[in-house]
Amino acid sequence: MDFLSLFPPEFIRIIISSIIIVTFIFVNAIIMVYLERKIAGHIQRRPGPMEVGPHGILQTIIDGIKLITKQLIIPTDVNKPLFRLAPLLSFTPSILPFIVIPFSKSFQARDLDLGIVFILAISAINVLALLVAGWASDNKYSLFGAMRAVSQNIAFEVPILLSILSVVLMTNTFSMQGIVAAQNKIWFVLLQPIAFIVYFISGLAETNRAPFDLPEAESELTAGFHTEYSGMGFGLFFLGEYGNMFIVSSIATVLFLGGWHGPFPLPFGDFTNIIWFMIKVYALLILMVQIRWTYPRVRFDQLLNLAWKYLIPISIVNLLITAVIVKL
Amino acid sequence: MIFYKYISEFLFIAFIMLVFLGSLLAVRAKVLMHGVLGLAVSILGVSGLYFYLGSMFLTLMQVLIYVGAVCIVIAFGVMVGKTPTEVEGLKLKAGIFGMFVSAVVFILLIFSIKKTSWKIPIKMSGDFSIEHLGYTMLTKYCLAFELISVLLLAAVVGAIIIARGGREEINS
Description:
Oligomer: heterodimer
Largest sheet of chain B: none
Largest sheet of chain A: none
Number of strands of chain A: 0
Largest interface: A-B, 27 and 22 residues
């Protein structure tokens, strides 16, 4: 009997897509860390990493090997099972949303009817992971970092939901492919500019990126919730953060920037759509990096005021106006 | 051997085990935070059962609301409030009483399950899809829907008033 006929195609598809997704997360983190250090260097008028390989291009790979081979130090007073569980709990929710991200019309692990709701539900687990990490570390800086992360995430989840809703009202579907298909004429960033800006600011806050990186503010909290982690424990938080950045940017691309639709065709055959998608996502990622190295960190009360007093009212008004225009 | 045919059975048992072990952890944990996480695990198991029943929407709502909101609020309360990290075990007397009560409930349940004549439903008696439910809730049962939201609002406002003890100036 043929070996392949033992497995249904759906089963093979699951295995292949999981391998691609996990590989992609690692490769993306390596590229993004290198880009971030280079951009940060040039913003501060220094060359950035230069030693390993031409223009330091192998630096992040070496750093990754260093992280993997480092000893895992577990402090004596921590809550051991939770301390070891937290990095895994933080990394998993950054893998799962890749299932529904549409890289092109056919290059997608699975198109769920509730694609965006799926991502929002999964990202809720991430908050729990930060909370567990901070609590289990038995360190006041970690605890403060975790509490800041949770109140920040809860605050900024509301404007994210509202701005996503105003797009969903226009497309009448939660499916990622459905939303992309609705933008073949005009991208939603032109119809919903306010929702896009609100989403992008809240997305920066959700991923704990500067200027909203209060959960890990070095000057006040050492390193926030991952103060006590070493080696790959820290590495998983780090990978999770870059995975989350990619997810936030790709949702922005799908919802507002036309997904895999390109303004003009490129000479890559079937890969054109994937390349357009990647160009848009990486443009947003580089914008995120640039924002991080340009603006100073906000204070915590300013952060919460921004969410509750500005972004939420703006997005509610935007949602109401959208509802009136669409349903009239 | 075609093992993939048993994947769904395996998943079903795994979800049941998640619910079972999670709720066991939630009640038996000595550290309060472990209890909260046990609750989260058992809720994830329940959402898995919804997935097994074919309702993606309920699955995601279960995760979004219970893990994402309720568990985090409870964990927040545990961290902010001054609670003992180690909770004492039950007293012997209370343990015996608890065993007695649960044995009685168990026997009653077994009796009622045995006595009932179970009928297998042949088909659904109406449209129970999420679309239909949403539509009727905003048209036919609009008043009930609005009343529930007013009730929730009243509960939230009441909770804030009780927690803050009225509107006084906070001296800082």
